[in-house]
Write a structure and sequence with these properties.
Largest sheet: 4 strands, mixed
Number of domains: 2
CATH class of the largest domain: Alpha Beta
Helix content: 25-40%
Shape: globular
Number of strands: 12
């Protein structure tokens, strides 16, 4: 797994029929199928299912666990993980998923903690951008707030805010302690070029301070999946921080966008085909 794995799947473009949805649901564990079926909107159900399929593809294609035997659970803070026996078998591999807007994404790496987050940059409904940003001010450090305010255009300020929020969420997810860790304790200093969609380069120079103290063991890889979806990968590896150059940073890895056929290329059904679940899915609205 040199360089790690970065996958993205566009759930907005995925418009399954009732039969196609039933077939996709049959590829995950029964408890996952039940949880996904409780979502009120097709948008949210598709995002949740895509996240589980990304995890199973990683386990089957990269970690060597047959699709039908992959067993997933959640940590006490809700982070998806392999059951203990399978986690021990694959060794020091960490992975994380995220979904928002049009995308579900996965990042994985060996020998370090991994967090990933994707956001959709969109103007807040019912209020101005600057009023929205002011309401979020307490979630940012002084360094971060100065970075946001430095942009003369409100839409660029909004994009800068979402970039920072995406980075913060990626750190929290790599730490694995969920809502018990306050976002205000993190202060990110964006450096290097503003992330751009491929084929632009990854942005790698952002740094992190926790409680005001710079932590060199954190590394960031940022890009844009499209003009409105920033994605950030946070990697925590103290061993790399003490290594000599050029071995003191993770290998930069771009995201690969998968088709549905690629996402499920190694899949095998785990539960019987449930056409009723497909019909229930089609009866729901796509979004609020």
């Amino acid at each position: 797994m040199e360089g790690g794995v970065r996958w993205a799947f566009n759930t907005r473009r995925w418009r399954p029929s009732a039969g196609e949805w039933a077939a996709a649901l049959a590829l995950v564990q029964a408890e996952e199928k039940e949880r996904i079926g409780r979502f009120m909107f097709r948008r949210d159900a598709k995002a949740a299912l895509a996240g589980r399929l990304l995890l199973r593809k990683l386990a089957a294609d990269i970690l060597g666990i047959p699709w039908g035997t992959v067993a997933l659970e959640r940590t006490e803070h809700g982070r998806p993980c392999l059951v203990a026996a399978q986690a021990v078998a694959v060794g020091a591999v960490d992975f994380n998923v995220s979904h928002q807007g049009a995308y579900a994404v996965l990042a994985a790496a060996a020998g370090m903690a991994v967090g990933v987050d994707v956001m959709e940059v969109r103007p807040p409904p019912g209020r101005s951008i600057d009023i929205f940003l002011a309401s979020m001010r307490r979630q940012l450090s002084l360094v971060e707030w100065d970075h946001v305010r430095a942009f003369p255009d409100e839409h660029r300020r909004l994009a800068a805010f979402y970039r920072l929020w995406c980075l913060k969420e990626a750190v929290i997810k790599a730490r694995g302690d969920g809502l018990t860790f306050a976002l205000q304790r993190l202060s990110l200093t964006p450096a290097g070029p503003t992330p751009t969609p491929p084929p632009g380069p990854l942005t790698l120079d952002t740094t992190l301070a926790i409680d005001g103290v710079h932590d060199p063991a954190w590394y960031f890889q940022e890009t844009m999946l499209d003009p409105t979806h920033p994605v950030a990968v946070a990697l925590h590896c103290p061993a790399l921080a003490s290594a000599p150059p050029p071995h003191n940073a993770p290998r930069a890895t771009h995201f690969t966008e998968l088709t549905y056929d690629q996402l499920t290329s190694s899949a095998t059904p785990l539960t019987p085909l449930d056409l009723g679940a497909g019909q229930a899915f089609m009866a729901k609205a796509e979004a609020p």
